[in-house]
Write a structure and sequence with these properties.
The protein is mainly beta. Helices cover about 10% and strands about 45% of the residues. It has one domain. The longest helix is centred in the N-terminal third of the chain and has 24 residues.
Length: about 210
C-alpha cells in the first residue's frame, strides 16, 4: 500500500512540474523599442506578453499577475526586469513613455499610486560603460542634458518646495575615475545645468503635456 501512495505522490509531483514548465514555456516577449547606443550596441525594451486573464507567472523566483505591462531590458544579450524586483506588477501597470533620444533610452512606467517611475540608460561615449538613472516624481521629465562627464533628466518641481524649494528637480549621473559608490543623484535647482539651447527635449504624450 505504501508503494501506491509513493507512486501517487511521485506522479503528482511530475504533473505539477510539467504544468509549471509548460506555463513558463508560454512566456513570450514582444520588443517595444530598440535603442542604439553610442558604442554601437543596442538596448532593447521588451514587454512580457500575458498568457491569459488572471494567470500568474513566475519571474525571477517571484509570482506576478500576468496582466498589464511588464517591461524588460535586453542588454548584451541578457534580459532582466527593467525596474526593481520588489515592485508589484498588476493589471494597472502601464508604460506611458518610451523614447530613444540621443542614443539614450528613456522609459516611464505607471505603477499606480503614488507616482510614475522612470529610468534613462546610455553608454558612456568614451568608456562605453552603461550608465543608468532611476527617477520617480509626480511630474514627468521634460528634457535631457549632456555636459562633459555628466548627464541627466530634468523634471519640473510641480509642488515647489515639496522636496526642495526649487523650480526643477534634476536626476543626474556623474562619471569619473575618482568617484566611488552611487553615481546617480538628485538635486534641486532654479536654473538649467546647460544653456537652454543645449537641452534635449523629451516629447511627452498629449495627456501629460
Amino acid at each position: 500500500m505504501k508503494y501506491s501512495y509513493f507512486l501517487i505522490f511521485f506522479l503528482g509531483m511530475v504533473l505539477l512540474i510539467s504544468n509549471k514548465a509548460f506555463a513558463n514555456s508560454r512566456q513570450q516577449y514582444r520588443s517595444v523599442i530598440s535603442c542604439k547606443m553610442t558604442g554601437g550596441d543596442k538596448v532593447i525594451l521588451k514587454k512580457l506578453e500575458p498568457i491569459g486573464n488572471n494567470a500568474y507567472l513566475e519571474i525571477d523566483g517571484k509570482e506576478y499577475l500576468a496582466t498589464g505591462d511588464k517591461p524588460y531590458l535586453e542588454i548584451n544579450g541578457k534580459t532582466s526586469l527593467a525596474f526593481d524586483k520588489d515592485i508589484t506588477y498588476g493589471e494597472w501597470t502601464e508604460l506611458i513613455l518610451v523614447r530613444c533620444i540621443r542614443h539614450t533610452l528613456v522609459v516611464i512606467m505607471d505603477f499606480g499610486s503614488p507616482y510614475p517611475r522612470g529610468l534613462a540608460i546610455r553608454q558612456n561615449p568614451i568608456t562605453h560603460q552603461y550608465e543608468r538613472i532611476d527617477f520617480g516624481q509626480k511630474s514627468l521629465p521634460t528634457a535631457l542634458y549632456f555636459k562633459n562627464n555628466e548627464w541627466g533628466v530634468i523634471l519640473p518641481n510641480i509642488e515647489n518646495g515639496y522636496y526642495v524649494g526649487k523650480k526643477y528637480l534634476i536626476h543626474f549621473y556623474k562619471a569619473g575615475k575618482n568617484l566611488s559608490g552611487k553615481q546617480d543623484h538628485m538635486k534641486g535647482t532654479n536654473s538649467f545645468p546647460v544653456p537652454k539651447k543645449d537641452l534635449v527635449y523629451i516629447p511627452l504624450p498629449k495627456e501629460y503635456q
